[in-house]
Write a structure and sequence with these properties.
Two copies of one chain form a homodimer. Chain A has 205 residues and is mainly alpha-helical. Chain A has two domains: 62 residues, Orthogonal Bundle (Arc Repressor Mutant, subunit A); 141 residues, Orthogonal Bundle (Tetracycline Repressor, domain 2). Chain A has eleven helices and no strands. The interface between A and B is large, with 37 and 37 residues.
């Protein structure tokens, strides 16, 4: 539901303003959590950084833990949606693989603080939020599994051991550690190089 | 220097006991930092967990930041040593690649808390320690670069864009996120699957 609001399906200016304020809070919180850690970042500090008092800030975030949850989960949700769209298209499996890699790399490159928070701070989530995060993460992993299955059916890919999926995820996801935004490599170019490596490694013989 | 002591080059029982106590502290600290975060882990809490008073604990660790540094750097140092040995052997590049992958996966699987601390807590290092960490990490990356160069010279590998190294590191390193110790897959088996994928992807045509 938070998602629908973020997408701009708003009916009036007030809600729209709420939505853009929330975006600003989310982004600043991701920056602060990445730079100083979730534990060491106070709600007061975040409020100062976005120019909001305690009451207004809590109106937007609910709680600090909920803020962490929203930051952690939204891009994974978004990638599941992207993945489902790609799966529903009528491309062959290697094209789907390539496109999902490009979209994933672009998403990571554009949201480095958020993705860092996703990887580093999940221990601070409530049990329920953590389970929801694992569930949605598994859904995304499953998109890759289905693309590989399609490729095997089409005779493009050789059958791979299940753990190969973790290697593919690592190839792309690990970029949160090293990617330099606005450096010499675009995310799409890097994704193509990685997809080339992976695809030739998975080709049926 | 800390390394030489850990390796057991000790001359008497007292130093040896010091060394095993230090190992115990390092391991417990890595567990606590991973479970609760570096910021949220107090020296008092660590002392209680290993059954040492404040004075004895500081004798072993120097400072909390130094402890973080030692935990973060020692396995990377170790992997650089392993990498130099492999490089110095007279195997062809694909065998070196395979062996380094196996050794790296085994090291990660055996030291998951330490590797998690390495990836998640570097922002808490002093500037100097952080620079040293980056330097040794780059040395390890350079071992992979040299194996790839050897493979191109031998005509086994096609020339790859430099960013391909990041993909290879991601393939193996990302296992700190998902590897389940004592699960159904041994680290060596996983490493072989990943090396197969990467090697067929890098083969010269």
């Amino acid at each position: 539901m938070a998602k629908a609001k973020q997408n701009g399906r708003t009916e009036n200016g007030a809600v729209k303003e709420d939505s853009s304020t929330r975006e600003r809070i989310f982004h600043m919180a991701a920056e602060l959590f990445t730079r100083n850690g979730y534990d060491a970042t106070g709600v007061q500090e975040l409020g100062d950084a976005v120019g909001l008092g305690r009451g207004a800030l809590y109106h937007h975030i609910g709680s600090k833990e909920n803020l962490l949850y929203q930051i952690s989960i939204r891009h994974v949700y978004q990638m599941v949606e992207v993945g489902e769209e790609i799966l529903a298209s009528d491309q062959p499996a290697d094209e789907k693989f390539r496109e999902l890699g490009r979209r994933l790399m672009a998403m990571i490159a554009e949201n480095l603080p958020e993705i860092t928070v996703f990887f580093h701070e999940h221990r601070s989530l409530s049990k329920q939020h953590n389970e929801e995060l694992i569930d949605i993460r598994d859904q995304f992993e499953n998109v890759w599994v289905r693309i590989l299955e399609q490729g095997v059916e089409e005779g493009i890919f050789r059958p791979m051991p299940p753990v190969a999926i973790k290697g593919i995820l690592g190839l792309f996801n690990y970029s949160y550690v090293w990617f330099v935004p606005n450096g010499k490599e675009t995310p799409e170019h890097v994704a193509d190089i990685f997809a080339d490596m992976a695809l030739s490694g998975m080709k049926s013989r």
